[in-house]
Amino acid sequence: MKRNKYSFVKFFLLLLFLSANFHSNAETQDPFEQTNRAVHEFNDKVDQFILRPVSVSYGYLPNPLERGISNALRNIGEPINFTNYIFQGDIESSLNTLGRFVINSTIGLFGLFDVADKMGLKKNYTDFGYTLEIWGVPEGDFLVLPFIGPRTTRHLVGNVLDLITNPLNYYLQDEYIVVRSSPTLLYALSSRSSNMDTIDNLRETSIDYYSSLKSIYTQNRKSFSIIADDDINEMGDFFDSFNEIDN
Known about the structure:
This protein is mainly α. The protein has helices at 2-20, 33-58, 63-76, 78-88, 91-106, 115-118, 128-134, 153-165, 167-171, 177-194, 196-205, 209-224, 230-239; strands spanning 142-145, 149-152.
């Protein structure tokens, strides 16, 4: 167990070292475009032949049940948000997030009902990628990863740090991989289902689907740094569906 803890510390320090060496640019650079496009094509096939059909079936769930699952999955992510707000020095948002988690995990029946929202504690959006931005880490290059999708280097490092700091992964570490992966898979289905029309229309109407997705992703990350708009972050949810994959 101690070895695992020390490994995490070393890995964390390595990520910070790599992050400090990211180059800074006004526009997101895409030096691996040829490879990125190939991975994008692969991901699109996975989406069309696997994720989309399953998401269509998921969409037939009764709305209250689907909403409850979505609420519970968002509630699971609140401890990560709380940790990030602490690292960002945003005490007000950290207390708001902690309050939401406590209320929704108890009165809201493990997050199935967003009771905190009705009490005036609104959902905020953050991640370790934004924390790294506040710390001055440049955005880095644009990447497209198999099964995961678009990421900047900074966002990818942030995802790994979110994974390491997610208490749910330690709670489920002794469970079967299906159990460990179930929150991530359900979140992916929920996000894909809620963005069904948007993604389908984008694929059908885009002259260059790769460039369109890249533009939406980069705009979403930039907007993420400025406002917490529900519509923007709904699309962002789809890109963040695999943040909690347990390797």
